[in-house]
């Protein structure tokens, strides 16, 4: 799989553009992915904040991560406009029978695939060498375009997960 997602991000968005990542509880099929891309494109084309169009971007990466971005240098994003994006994500959850708000489900790049793991199983995965300090982790807590470009896919050893696991010497 080609993991070079950075080249797919809009070049004309400011580095401090706000980012929201929603991770699907399963890999979406090709047909589902294409339909979701259409929903995202339609949403972004009509995204408004207090009646003013939001400079937005939405896409699905790796068949599993919905990324929404708003360049607030063009138009600030209000609570109402954020609420409208959450409604879209909830609609996608219902339409495709997936969970997109489960922050206890972690994603890693293992053997050239996205592998999901419940947080409660993290130590077990480390103990059994499924996850190592160098395994790439999808840090869905990134908040800006710059963080998305540089800190989304990071080694476990560089993430907050190190506070949750004991690594054998």
Count up the helices: 4
Number of strands: 9
SSE pattern, N- to C-terminal: EHEEEEHEEHEHE
What distance separates the N and C termini?
32 Å
Fraction of residues in helix = 25-40%
Radius of gyration: 17 Å
How would the blueprint of this fold be written?
Elements: E1 18-23, H1 30-46, E2 48-49, E3 52-53, E4 56-61, E5 65-70, H2 79-96, E6 105-110, E7 113-118, H3 122-127, E8 136-138, H4 145-151, E9 153-155
Antiparallel strand pairs: 1-5, 2-3, 4-5, 6-7, 6-8, 8-9
Give a written overview of the molecule.
The chain has 169 residues and is an alpha+beta fold. Helices cover 28% and strands 24% of the residues. Helix 1 (30-46) packs antiparallel against helix 2 (79-96). Strands 7-6-8-9 form a four-stranded antiparallel β-sheet. A three-stranded antiparallel β-sheet has the order 1-5-4, with helices on one face. It has a two-stranded antiparallel sheet with strand order 2-3.
Question: What structural keywords apply?
Answer:
single chain, alpha+beta, three-stranded antiparallel sheet, 9 strands, globular, 169 residues, four-stranded antiparallel sheet
What would you say about this model in short?
By secondary structure, the chain is an alpha+beta fold.
